[in-house]
Amino acid sequence: MIPLSAALVEQPVQIFLIVLAIILLAPLLLNKLKIPHIIGMIAAGIIVGPYGFNILADDSSFAIFGQVGLLYLMFLAGLEIDMYHLRLNLRRGMVFGILTLLIPLSLGVLTSVYVLGLNWVTSMLLGAMYASHTLLSYPVAARLGVTKAPAVLIAIVGTIIAVIGALLVLGATVTVAREGAFNIMELLWLAIKLALWAVALLYLFPRLTRLYFKHYSDKVTQYVFVLTLVFLAAATAQLIGLEPVLGAFLAGLILNRYVPAASPLMNSIEFVGNALFIPYFLISVGMIINVRLLANPDTLALSAFMILVALAGKWLPAYIARRIYRMDSCSGGVMFGLTTAHTAVALAVVTVGYNLGMFDETVLNSTIMVIMATCAAAPMLTASAAAKLKVRMMDDDSDALIRLPRVNHTLIPVANAVTAGSLVEMAMLMRNDRGRHSFYALHVRNDNGKTSKSVSHHSLEAARRTGAAADIAVETLDRYDLNTVTGVLNVIEERDITEILLGMHRRATVIDSFFGTKVEQLLRSTNRMLLITRCFIPANTLTRILVWVPDKAQYETGFSRWVRSVARLTRQVGCRVIFHCTTDIQPLIRGVLYAENYGIRCEFATVADGWDDFILLSNKVLPDDLLVVVSARAQSVSYAPEMAELPSFLQKYYSQNNLMVIFPEQFGESVPLTSFTDPLSTDIASAASPVLQRLRGFWRRKGRDKGQNKTEKGQNKG
Questions:
Q1: Do residues 300 and 372 lie in contact, with contact meaning Cβ atoms separated by under 8 Å?
Q2: In this predicted model, what pLDDT tens digit does every residue of 379-394 receive, in sequence order?
Q3: Segment 66-99, tens digit of pLDDT
Q4: Which of 4, 222, 298, 477 could bridge 442 with an S-S bond, Cβ 3.0-4.6 Å?
């Protein structure tokens, strides 16, 4: 097991160079061969490792980075889970978890006793190895975009149950081997510690995260803070006798709602993990595999038998669960592929057994071969089934994709560098990830001085940098125009803007209006959807979104568009949304949400006609809530005379709350999502008739002639 000669490369710089070369070249080479890159990393580890050409030694650096990569992999798996769909599939996942724990355990024990001739205690330990598995092929599912599929979520829940069960069996078996008797008290004590540990993390981590994110917005410090919590959870799990991977996975589940998928922080976490830590882990797995063991016929025969048992033990639960829940074959294949790989827990089980003298070297080497074979098979099985599942999911969504508009163009006017980043982040949280969505950051100036140009440059650079951190392109527009409103209106027409996101106006004087003159002019001059936002806390720390919907809002052309925007924001933040509206509007909102299957926690609160309930709502809005008020332009269908008092209501009752005011799109193209018809058919943005154009030109020329005559008379008098 130990190589006879020292490794060829021992210098740290050269070692790191070789690892980076493997990470760079392995995917490029294997993509042409249609082989998952995970296999390439493992194969590269075999080649350069102690049992290959002995180029690199399996030293402490690979042990550290390999362990970090495994924890990072499990953390990402928990972080990328759609919590809403996870709750929907929790019961099915628990059933599958019990199946994928008991079936391999029973199969392993029976074959070890009656085929291999091992005693019952040793067979239980070997059965725990068969029962455990690792989500090694999860990156394959993530790359193919099926992580929200029920099969993937069921497999993840099953992984948690299987790993915990295998560890409990390991603890009980080791107790019997050391003390000669089964001690149920130790097993109960481990279960109690597990429950207390999980409750402590569920209580502390959300509060610490929300507190930290509110006071520190720097993405570097937030990234370090998140990793600190991950490794704190892993270390505490190890202290109470559990595997660190459970701590990392639970930390990912807890931090899930605080790291939105479209945020710069999420992009940084995925980038570092996929670029360095996870490949390091895969290479380290390959370095422990001794392919020379294939030369031993006894080891080869035992390995083949154990591999067959391992594959059968994981295929049967996936097949049974698929038949119970009437899922298709590709979903069953995804569950089988995700639960096939045996790595960390399996290696820990056989290492403990070998150190206690329960296994000989042949069983240990055969287990290594099981790890090698399952790690190679899992990505291929997952890739094959996940590709078919992705095609089926796209076919199911094809009708919705044709029916709903797929193009969004969001304009974000930015006035300074301080608020530009937060506005862009809010816009990205409402990004339409099921179609093409373009973002434009605009700064309008009417001065060519150095100061004005410097403010414009820094504002647009802050907006571009925020988008780049989340890997989302934000086109910056520096415009010289008569005034801000004119510049915005010109860009709306030039870029075919569908919605405008503005920061809330700050009143400069006592007589200044709540929204400001610029917003009021925009509302009169454009029919596009206008969103005005003010957040005192980061969006990813919101606990609820409360939406106030006026009566007859469903008759506006932009009804479905603003509902989708709120739904996308809710899905990214991961919180609840509560719509306060009349009973006539509730089924129509449900219809829009159902059309694209957003999968958000949606509730409804019935309100009566009038604005008394709106004032009373101020007693229910908490500091961590976001109040979304759907307003209306004057003379629109949903406009009521009471809306004239909306600015004063907001200023008086909601001055300290996070706020977003939406003026839906008026006129424009109607989307046939609901059963009602659009009573509005005239587009105020369309060109006037030729007769009206001539009349306007006549009155303009007449006005200019009068002005010139007055000027000439004044000059003659002078």
A1: no
A2: 888 888 888 888 887 7
A3: 888 888 887 887 787 777 767 778 888 899 999 9
A4: 477
User: How confident is the model over 529-556, as a mean pLDDT?
Assistant: 91
Secondary structure letter of residue 242 according to DSSP: S
**Whole-prediction pTM value?**
0.73
Which domain does 487 fall in, by range? 398-503
Whether residue 383 is found in the same domain as residue 407 = no
681's tokens: 């058919």
297, burial (CB in 10 Å: exposed 0-12, middle 13-18, buried 19+): exposed
What is the SS3 string spanning 266-310? Answer: HHHHHHHHHHHHHHHHHHHHHHCCCHHHHHCHHHHHHHHHHHHHH
Q: How far apart are CA 574 and CA 571, in angstroms?
A: 5
Confirm if 129 and 367 have CB atoms less than 8 A apart.
yes
pLDDT digits (tens, 9 = 90+) for 179-215: 666 667 777 887 888 899 999 999 999 999 999 998 8
- 122-165 confidence digits (pLDDT tens): 888 888 889 988 887 887 887 787 877 888 889 888 888 888 78
What residue type is 360 in one-letter code? D
Structure tokens at 305: 């038998």
The verdict on 542 and 456 lying in the same domain is no
- Are 69 and 134 within 8 A, CB to CB? no
Report residue 400 CA to chain centroid gap: 22
Same domain, 443 and 539: no
End-to-end CA distance of the chain: 109
The answer to whether residues 546 and 499 belong to one domain is: no
The Cα–Cα gap between 352 and 37 comes to 31
Q: Could you give the strand order of the β-sheet that contains 658-663, starting from the edge strand earlier in sequence? A: 474-480, 436-445, 407-413, 499-503, 529-534, 658-663, 625-630, 544-548, 576-581, 601-606
Q: Are 442 and 374 found together in one domain? A: no
Structure tokens, 701: 């020329």
Question: Which of the four pLDDT bands, split at 50, 70 and 90, describes residue 3?
Answer: very low
Give residue 181's pLDDT: 66
| Residue 485 tokens, joined | 């409103």
| pLDDT tens digits, one per residue of 557-604 | 889 999 999 999 998 888 899 999 999 899 999 988 887 778 788 999
Q: What is the Cα 562 distance to its own chain's centre?
A: 22
Q: Provide DSSP, 192-236.
A: HHHHHHHHHHHHHHHHHHHHHHHH---HHHHHHHHHHHHHHHHHH
Residues 146 and 219 both lie in one domain: yes
Instruction: Kindly list the distances between the CA atom of residue 602 and the CA atoms of 381, 404, 547, 566, 584, in Å, as whole numbers in the listed order.
Output: 36, 21, 11, 11, 17
pLDDT exceeds cutoff 70 at 294: no
Residue 698 has pLDDT above 80, yes or no: no
The token duo for 151 is: 């099969």
Q: 602, 560, 567, 600: which is closest to 403 by C-alpha?
A: 560
